[in-house]
Amino acid sequence: MIHIALLQKTELKDGSKISVGQLKEVFLKCGFTGVRVVLTGGNVIFYSKNKTTIELRIICEEALRKAFGTDIKVVVFSDFEYVAMHEHAAKLKWWNVGDDKKHNAFFAVPPANGQTVLDELGALNKDLETVSLYNKRVIFWSAPSKSAGRGKFMKALKGSIGKSLITRKSEIFVKLTECLMQK
Q1: pLDDT for residue 183
Q2: Hey, which CATH number is domain 2-79, 1.10.1840.10, 3.60.10.10, 3.30.230.10, 3.30.70.1280?
Q3: pLDDT (tens digit per residue) in 45-67
Q4: What CATH fold (topology level) applies to the domain 81-181?
Q5: What's the pTM value of the predicted model, to 2 decimals?
Q6: Which DSSP category does 40 fall into?
Q7: What is the predicted pLDDT for the residue at 126?
Q8: Which residue, of 49, 125, 149, 156, is most buried by count of CB atoms within 10 Å of its CB?
Q9: How far is CA 8 from the centre of its chain?
């Protein structure tokens, strides 16, 4: 089955970045095949048999820790799960629409889930930001560009909530779907 791993960061403690080659090598050493690092170093498409996404996430995080000596949080989705997320986002009339807005997908890193993140935030100012939760694993967020930084969600990312999420801009989210479909 085809999977996608999204890394929270590719910067190491010393400020250097994990190269595409290094990242591909780590995933190949895990026994994965068809490994492709796409768009940015934090997105890896690979093939793996007989493992759940939870097992794959643990394997990836342990391999990255061993290779680079630092914790790098990862979320893993099957290609079917990721495409279903894309289909959900496409039905939202406000997400990824309008050049005067910012649009992000925030992926919850276990043990957190999207609902617990939203509960911790409390009520959002609907004039400043709009969110949609999909399958407790991803939060689609949108806000006017001029006021995006004033919203509760973006302010919270700088604190502990930010450690529970992996962020992808809408353009990257959509392009990753296209990459997954190029089997």
Answers
A1: 64
A2: 3.30.70.1280
A3: 999 998 999 999 999 999 999 99
A4: Alpha-Beta Plaits (3.30.70)
A5: 0.93
A6: S
A7: 84
A8: 156
A9: 7
